[in-house]
Design a protein that fits this description.
This protein is α/β, with parallel strands linked by helices. Helix content is about 35%, strand content about 15%. The strands form 2 sheets. A 7-stranded parallel β-sheet has the order 1-10-9-6-2-3-5, with helices on one face. Helix 1 packs across helix 2. The chain is globular. Bound molecules: fructose -6-phosphate. Fructose -6-phosphate binds next to loops.
């Protein structure tokens, strides 16, 4: 396991995340980066937009891949639309450089298989960014998702559907989604788990120091052969004990 745990103050969190992305892009400007949606990455995406807008940084060479997507959602509620607005358009990433997740139930099995194959054939993901669901999901791999899962259609739990509905002020409640599987995610050459806020403190602790099992899909990150970094703000990290993480073998550059 090569897992590095980093804690940042809230104000420094986005810059710390950008620094990790920049490191990958400096080595490889056309790296393939996997993007999640949600509240957690918003400061990171804001900082990327700020840098791209100030023309301090060009991101147009990177290749993007979507981590997940709601099925059969109106365009305005799709993850695609959200990522286009938050990330892809402001960073001037051409649509041809973006691998889009299937978004319709019709033919979803074949479409997910095609997504998975095309991702592998293009060389896979260099840096997969992830958020952490309140129940331990990564992507939309809900509890019960096995380590060997690949890109597929899933049904969201009531809790996840509710959390997403709250994001859209109740105007949209997703029920079905397509998501990269756990095995797909673990194949990335580097993985970054982004965590913010005290509401995630308990599940982060469970993911990092609880049992490794399908009941907490994020715990599978501890089985990755690729380097994994976890970037948490102090609120999300408040239930972790650096000594315990140290004894578990994590690299903890934590004051
Ligand atoms: C969304 C995704 C989900 C979210 C998770 C946390 O693309 O992959 O796993 O990362 O539900 O969501 P937030 O960040 O809104 O708390």
């Amino acid at each position: 396991m090569s897992l590095q745990f980093v804690v940042a103050d809230s104000e420094a969190w986005a810059a710390a995340a950008v620094a990790r992305i920049e490191r990958v892009l400096t080595a490889q400007p056309a790296a393939c980066v996997g993007f999640p949606t949600g509240r957690t990455p918003q400061p990171l995406y804001g900082e990327l937009r700020r840098r791209a807008g100030a023309a301090r940084r060009k991101y147009s060479e990177l290749r993007a891949v979507m981590l997940d997507e709601y099925l059969d959602a109106e365009a305005r509620f799709q993850s695609w639309t959200w990522l286009k607005m938050e990330v892809f358009d402001p960073l001037r990433i051409d649509g041809r450089r973006i691998r889009r997740m299937p978004q319709r139930s019709a033919g979803i099995g074949a479409a997910c298989g095609q997504f998975e194959r095309a991702l592998q054939e293009s060389g896979g993901c260099d840096l997969q960014l992830l958020g952490l669901g309140a129940n331990g999901h990564i992507g939309f791999n809900e509890p019960g998702s096995a380590a060997g899962t690949r890109t597929r259609a899933v049904t969201l739990t009531e809790a996840t559907a509710g959390a997403n509905a709250a994001y859209w002020q109740g105007a949209f409640t997703p029920r079905r989604a397509a998501t990269m599987g756990i095995a797909t995610i673990l194949q990335a050459r580097e993985i970054g788990l982004l965590v913010r806020g005290v509401a995630k403190a308990g599940i982060l602790r469970r993911a990092l120091s609880g049992e490794i099992s399908a009941e907490c899909p994020a715990s599978f990150l501890r089985t990755a052969s690729a380097p994994v970094w976890v970037l948490a703000d102090r609120e999300a990290a408040c239930r972790l004990d650096p000594k315990v993480l140290g004894t578990l073998g994590y690299n903890v550059p934590w004051p």
